[in-house]
Write a structure and sequence with these properties.
Length: 764
């Protein structure tokens, strides 16, 4: 069938067929012969010689007529193999071969997908590079050889990359990577600004690198002493080697809240610990570069890093954090020319620590610095995106491990948000383990919302329950605060069994679901009751702390320091959708609180329990018993993925960012020395695609605001002694929020449930 036309080739084919026939004949004789004779031996040798001839001829024929097509090979592979024991091995090999081929195709598809995404990110990241003119010229000359034509790399594209020369730095058309430096030069030229106040930086949540001092065998093979477990690409190396082991190392002991047995993580020291989280992703990097541009150096800039997993109390108990901060500030002031006071800069959770420190340092039971220590040592306090009234997302993180903000977690949410329920467990680990890790961090318990129903709503409507057949029914919808669209902080929907849930999904009238609405106070009680079963140390400590409602730096109870010459600035972003209230359902089939759940659901949740004994105090209890109810989003409200969003910076709602700065801190009861306070809001302007990189220059987002050029310019004015040039700017609905919350607190005071209020200077 495959023999090509032609006399010579036909003869060659006949010779080949004759030799194949002789091969079969001699092979049959050799098998039948009981004992090989001399003739048989000669026949065998002749058969071997003939085999060689046949192989040579066959190879020649294949070269002449070409190989069979892939379709013919596939059809041959598809033929059923003869049955029998001697063919079982071949069948297994063929099966393995097909499985391997399928896996290779999947791997190839994933490789192409990730390569495409990586190329897009690399091209975007290249926009931030500083390219010398010589390199630009060479690249342009050989662009057609270096880049494929479909990439569209031409002179216009290359001109988007800033050149390293003074003309570009001084020109009006500057670029993303250098705008913060140009802003620093503008401040220096206009105000003749020079370094005045030494700068102490208190970074935010997850902003400090953590390094490994002692590890367990499960991760020790791939890590080195003092390797980064959080921050830098080394984190990815340890994470992808064994993510379960990595999560165990990142967690703390559930019973004590301290280091687990055999594991020691400590913060990286110095500026390097807070400047860049990873290549291409800055935290304090842009701010530090701008400070350096106007003359600051390592001698008058200090980053007081810390283990961001710990609460303020544990930081002082384990590491002596505030004692060291006190000595650091005193030393910098004494060694600075003119003994200038310190400018204290804090971001995010760093604000919680800084307010704790400002009261602790003067307390006879704390730092014992005396009543005038802050006045003598601190010139200005800059609060950048501080959660003064807590962070609602901390509740969702502790309740179900579904946290979507801060540093790299925020960036992961933007990338993986739509696939959070299907992909995150494969990439990061089970949400059961993540929930336990979050609960082991006492820092998250310190960021729970403060102010109760007076601030967050729910004081006029008691938590209630109802049974409904309407999937779109919302209970207790009366707004209680200017930024609240639902009176309940948590709304929990439950079903008796899976059948009822299926009926409810199909909007059948006979279906029933139980709705439970919880105010902020009741939501925190609900969280404490759940978490104390698995993480008793943090849950019980937090409950006692909240019951007393008194601690160092309490935003609504503590007085500001007696420092009339000190200045306070509250800088934060607005105009970005921020989670505020949540809808939950029972994990599994959404079964009722009192029910045991289905066997299938129980098996699934048991499968996701952590293997670590340090992350939970009771391995028989499931930590993640609830999940965000993404199926019950009423169309008339701004519900997305089980969350209701309001104005804020993407992580902290506006009421938490600005209320304390606008009202109680300006009242005489909490500000007896009348410290001047200014609020400066920065409208969020999303990064455009042409800016390149991962972070923009005009964002108000919780982390990316650290690269906001307008905000950097204001901070430079403050630390160089020109804080008077920074004027208050409020563009949001903060005044309306302040009036509403003050009314709620006043009503509570009249009922005997709160403290007396005084009108502040700003007249809010």
């Amino acid at each position: 069938r495959h023999c090509p036309k032609g006399g010579g080739e036909k003869k060659l084919h006949r010779v080949m067929m004759m030799l194949e026939t002789r091969k079969k004949t001699y092979s049959r004789r050799s098998v039948i012969a009981a004992k090989p004779t001399t003739t048989a031996a000669r026949t065998t040798r002749r058969t071997e010689d003939d085999d060689d001839d046949v192989n040579v001829v066959s190879e020649t024929m294949r070269k002449r007529r070409g190989r069979r097509t892939h379709e013919e090979e596939d059809s041959r592979d598809a033929l059923p193999l003869p049955s029998g024991k001697k063919h079982k091995k071949r069948e297994e090999e063929e099966k393995t071969k097909k499985e391997t081929k399928g896996k290779k195709r999947v791997v190839l598809a994933l490789f192409l997908l990730y390569s495409s995404v990586g190329m897009i990110l690399v091209i975007s990241y290249l926009r931030l590079l500083i390219v010398p003119d010589a390199v630009r010229t060479k690249a342009m000359e050989h662009a057609e050889f270096l880049f494929p034509s479909w990439m569209g790399v031409n002179e216009t594209f290359l001109n988007l990359l800033p050149a390293l020369n003074p003309d570009v730095l001084n020109s009006d058309s500057y670029y993303n990577a250098m705008e913060h430096l140009i802003a620093a030069r503008q401040v220096s030229d206009m105000l003749n600004a020079k370094p005045k106040h030494p700068v102490v930086i208190v970074p935010g949540f997850v902003n400090t690198g953590l390094e490994l001092w002692k590890s367990k065998p499960c991760i020790a093979k791939r890590t080195q002493f003092r390797q980064r477990m959080w921050g830098t690409p080394a984190m990815a190396k340890a994470f992808f080697y064994n993510r379960t082991c990595w999560l165990e190392h990142m967690g703390l002991d559930a019973r004590t809240g301290e280091d687990p047995d055999g594991i020691v993580l400590r913060p990286v020291e110095g500026i390097d610990s807070v400047d860049w989280f990873m290549p291409g992703y800055f935290v304090w990097g842009r701010m530090i570069e701008a400070l350096g541009e106007i003359g600051y150096t390592g001698s008058n800039i200090h980053a007081h890093s810390y283990d961001w997993r710990l609460s303020p109390e544990q930081l002082e108990k384990r590491d002596g954090y505030f004692t060291k901060l006190k000595k650091q500030i005193e030393g910098m002031r004494e060694t600075n020319p003119g003994e200038e006071k310190i400018a204290l800069l804090a971001h995010s959770y760093g604000d919680t620590l800084s307010r704790y420190f400002l009261e602790w340092v003067e307390s006879p039971k704390g730092g014992k610095g005396g009543a005038n220590w802050v006045s003598d040592n601190i010139a200005t306090y800059v609060n950048i995106a501080g959660p003064t009234l807590g962070m609602p997302k901390s509740v969702s993180a502790l309740l179900s491990g579904e946290m979507r903000d801060t540093a790299v977690l925020n960036e992961l949410e933007m990338t993986l948000g739509p696939m959070i329920n299907t992909f995150v467990e494969k990439l990061i680990g089970s949400l059961e383990e993540i929930t336990l890790v979050f609960r082991s961090w006492s820092s998250l318990w310190s960021m729970l919302p403060i102010g109760g129903d007076e601030v967050w709503g729910g004081s006029e409507i008691a938590a209630s329950s109802s049974t409904t057949s309407d999937p779109e029914e919302v209970i207790d919808e009366t707004p209680l605060s200017a930024d609240v669209a639902d009176a309940n902080f948590l709304t929990i929907r439950e079903f008796k069994n899976q059948r009822e849930k299926k009926k409810w999904k199909k909007q059948q009238k006979e279906a029933s679901a139980t709705l439970t609405g919880l105010s902020m106070d009741n939501s925190l009680h609900f969280l404490h009751d759940l978490a104390k079963q698995t993480t008793p140390a943090n849950a019980e400590t937090s409950f006692k702390k909240r019951t007393k409602d008194k601690w160092y730096g309490h935003p609504l109870r503590s007085k500001l320091p007696n420092a009339p010459k000190m200045k306070i600035f509250c800088l934060y972003g607005v105009g970005k959708s921020t989670e505020r209230s949540y809808r939950y359902t029972k994990d599994g089939f959404g079964e009722h609180l009192g029910g045991g759940g289905s066997d299938e659901g129980n098996v699934r949740r048991h499968h996701h329990r952590t293997a670590s004994t340090s992350l939970t105090a009771n391995a028989s209890v499931v930590a993640k018993q609830y999940k965000l109810d993404v199926e019950s989003d009423p169309s008339q409200l701004e519900w997305q993925k089980g969350t209701l969003s309001v104005d804020g910076d993407g992580s902290i709602p506006l009421v938490s960012l600005g209320y304390a700065c606008a009202s109680p801190w300006r009242a005489k009861t909490q500000n007896p020395s009348s410290i001047p306070i200014k609020i400066r809001e920065y409208a969020h302007l999303p990064k455009t695609l042409m800016e390149g990189g991962f972070q923009g220059i005009s964002e108000g987002e919780h982390v990316n605001i650290m690269g906001n050029v307008d905000m950097i310019r204001d901070v430079l004015k403050i630390v160089t002694g020109h804080g008077d040039a920074v004027e208050e700017r409020i563009s949001s609905d903060l005044p309306a929020i302040v009036r509403k919350v003050d009314e709620n607190r006043l009503k509570s005071t009249k009922r005997g449930g709160g403290r007396r209020l005084h009108r502040n200077k700003a007249g809010f």
